[in-house]
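Notes, p. 3: input format for complexes.
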Amino acid sequence: MEIVFASEQEADPQSWVAALRDAMPEAQVRLWGDGQPEGRADFAVVWAPPADLFAREPRLRALFNLGAGVDALLRLPGLPQDLPLVRLEDGGMAVQMAEYALYHVLRESRDFGRYERQQAAGLWQPLDDIDRDAWTVGVLGAGAMGARVAQACAALEYPTAVWSRSGRAVPGTESFGGESGLAAFLARTRVLVNALPLTDATRGILCRRTFDQLRPDAVVINIARGGHLVEADLLAALNDGRLRAAALDVFEPEPLPPGHPFWADARIRVTPHIAGASLMDRTVRQIADKIRALGRGEPITGVVDRERQY
Ligand code: OXD
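Output follows (310 residues plus oxalic acid):
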């Protein structure tokens, strides 16, 4: 069995190749473009792969993505229609995303930014006690990431709801589903966390119409994809006081261009797509287990539904 690792963005592809070799001594693992003969790979492990991968590796039986989001893969020219795509289910990302979202929920609800400014001014001044009912959290997306974020917020007793297309239940939280459930979900939400896959149906979901339905003085946290956000609508909603703050980890394009207005806006917290990194050990173990299961003819989870786009 041969596996090719192909990424145009991964900083240290050799270490992924080494980890895959350790996890699957039975396989030949090769780095894309290493000068070895091509065209014999059974599986590809990829993150932002080159577009000619499919023409040069025509025998692929499945493509494993190093991340949960497959939006960029689905846009890749030449992607064979019938090639199974497998997304990463949770390679250690979900708990990190929960930390990221919770950090911003805590920071806003406890007004820690204000305490930082008070310290700088040498001011000893307790603020009002927190009223948790005023800090309702709403998570868009009930997949592995969204569910983990929601459970973390609920564990700290923030009234938490989850919205998804199907209305999938997440224990300890209220669930809403479909178009019909969205308005009620937004109307009860003060902190909106986006953990949706980027699809034709969800592109631009973080827009003025959505912001206008949230509770007053709302906060938006985007840990999914830059394409979910209509940037001009976010700035307008911050400017007219509809939103209080935003925490953004993802952008379109990335990196966020120099001079972009988000960089210097004190109401927006910008991070460089770090909310949930795929941890090498767990990721490689998950992929190795799935490749072995396929080899035994067993079904695997995480196969992308091309119609749904996730
Ligand atoms: C992912 C990501 O898709 O890291 O997992 O963005």
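The mean pLDDT is 97.
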